[in-house]
Task: structure prediction
Amino acid sequence: MNRRLAALLVPALLAVAGCTATDQGAAPPAATRAERPSPFADCAALTAAPASAAPAPTTGPGEPLPELTLSCFTGGAPVNLRQVKGPAVVNVWASWCPPCRKELPAFQRLSERAAGRFQVIGVNSRDSRGGAQSIGEDFGVRFPMLVDQGDAFERALNRNAFPLTLFVGADGRVRHADATGALDDATLTELVRTHLGVAVDA
Result:
């Protein structure tokens, strides 16, 4: 009788021990795994004037940026566009837009040449997070990136073009909007000089 009981209990105990060992060695749930780090910079500094920017005029031509709040790709507090401090170059783009992909490296180089005199800001619009992340990684894009899940930003500007680039003065007013297609280094340099009054190396 004891042998029969032992024969029944031993496999059961081994099964329990095996399950316990398997559970302890199991990988953590997918939800706890860290996401890929964002290639883009944080957006917290967008509401502070660029360190070396010229003083903002009392007022200037152009309309102010729309009264619209967008989330930052890296997380953190959403950004009210009216609180963004210029001078700034704002590029609206999407990963599925060939001219956008073509010009993004030029915007990254522009952000490196800005030297604290103006900000370069991206607005990723009508796109997937994975698509934007991949483009940012592939092209080495590091400037701050806001996210517009739909097209609220473009609707607020009464525009429907990709890519779209805004040149925003130190007073937060849009001096010029460009929708001519992919911009290169020389064109960006000229637009920044003309509309923001800042000279950068080509």
